[in-house]
Amino acid sequence: MHAAWGHRTVCGQVWAGLGPFPGKPGNPWAKLGVMDGLQDRKIILGVTGGIAAYKSPDLVRKLAAAGAEVQVVLSAGATQFVGVAALQAVSGKRVRQDLWDPDAEAAMGHIELARWADMILVAPATAHFIANLAGGQAPDLLTTLCVATRAPMVLVPAMNQAMWANSATQANRERLQQRGVRLLGPAFGEQACGDVGPGRMLEPAEIVAELDQQSSAPQQDLAGVRVLITAGPTREPIDPVRYITNRSSGKMGYALAAAAAARGARVTLVSGPVACTCPSGAQCIDVETAEEMYRAVMGEARDADIFIGCAAVADYRPAQAAPQKMKRKDASMSLELVRSPDVLASVAQLSPRPYTVGFAAETQALERNAGSKLKAKGLDLIAANLVGPKMGFDTEDNALLVLWPGGSKRLQRAAKSTLATQLMDLIVGRFKRVPRPIDMTGSD
Ligand code: C5P
What we know:
By secondary structure, the protein is of the alpha/beta class. The protein folds into two domains: 3-215, Rossmann fold, CATH 3.40.50.1950; 226-321 and 336-431, CoaB-like (Rossmann fold, 3-Layer(aba) Sandwich). Helix content is 31%, strand content 23%. The chain has helices spanning 28-31, 56-65, 84-91, 102-107, 110-116, 127-134, 141-148, 161-165, 167-178, 204-215, 251-262, 290-301, 343-348, 366-376, 416-433, and strands at 42-47, 69-74, 119-125, 153-157, 182-183, 187-190, 196-200, 226-231, 235-239, 242-245, 266-271, 282-286, 306-309, 316-318, 337-339, 355-362, 381-386, 397-404, 407-415. The strands form five sheets. The chain has an eight-stranded mixed sheet, with helices on both faces. A five-stranded parallel sheet has the order 2-1-3-4-5, with helices on both faces. Helix 2 (56-65) packs parallel to helix 3 (84-91) and helix 5 crosses helix 7. The chain is globular and about 75 Å long. It starts with 27 loop residues before the first helix and ends in an 11-residue tail after the last helix. The structure holds cytidine-5'-monophosphate (C5P). Cytidine-5'-monophosphate is lined by residues 230, 290, 309-311, 313, 315, 340, 342-344, 358-360, 373.
């Protein structure tokens, strides 16, 4: 199991599918019914001295476009990477840097500023800044604000992967999280210094989407409901270095887990190997093979109220995984494959069973194939999508055809996080109308 932080990128939370934010402040997206969680929020954006600071003007612009009022505060190091003039232009406010600036203090003192903020967001947050904050040190304006504020704090770490892995940094991170400071990322990937690993700052669009999701308080209509979700691909070993897998980024399953957790559900996410962060509020169980996924799911399914099978489970696995790396010999070779357990169908056969939702990724005849699957597996609902080049896989957006016995609904192309919310709306509505039988055994 892993906790809700880590080196993996947030998935299914990016709104890039709706295109770039328009240049003018105001919240055009809110007019479309999305992204109003940041409307009129007063955000102090702290920028500290990492290379990712060059993205700050874009972040300010996106926060402003989402309706937030942004006051930028720079650390001394940040000025090496980003220009004050650019930040001033996009935020429309004088950038604050100095604890001892008499002019700025006369306009709004640092304590007033700390009280003004609804949220302090620090992006990028360097190892040095994180260490100062963890130790309660306040050597400059930004750290002083952080010590003085009662507003929630969100840090978006960005640093070299070795600095992030350093045990002091990890201890500081843990201390801050225990105090309720939220962390977004860091993401895994290639770094400015050439290293590859965890330490990249999340992209501005991802940061804004995450904050928006946290800030909009959705109805708690799944409070206490136990939701079990599978996500990602499985890997079926051929030998110690090779495996059979399916194309799947896990983004949809993770977005569903985030959407369910945001509505108050107790979410367990059983995930194959993906580059996604465990959504906050969810408990994540990492698995690799279909067999492991089956065992993890069957261990939890009897306690679940809703099961959503979103994983791309490998249908077949090699009958035997070779214990050593197989050598290249003949011009061709055959692998004997055997069926993997069907996780979804197995859950659907339980009695009593959770409200059971499946997915169908089809390359043709979407409605017919999904309809047959709904019947054959005995599901309560199925969400189907067409897959192919640039469609469905590893994209930020998708479109779904949702079928249930006696009904259907098309969910138009949108970001996976939006689709996840819409699909949860459908599930919540139908799940309420199909209550589970009352357990008469008296056991909990
Ligand atoms: O049978 P098919 O793979 O087309 O159905 C897709 C649905 O079944 C998805 O919801 C997927 O998560 C689930 N599934 C499963 N175990 C398998 C194969 C598919 O849970 N072995």
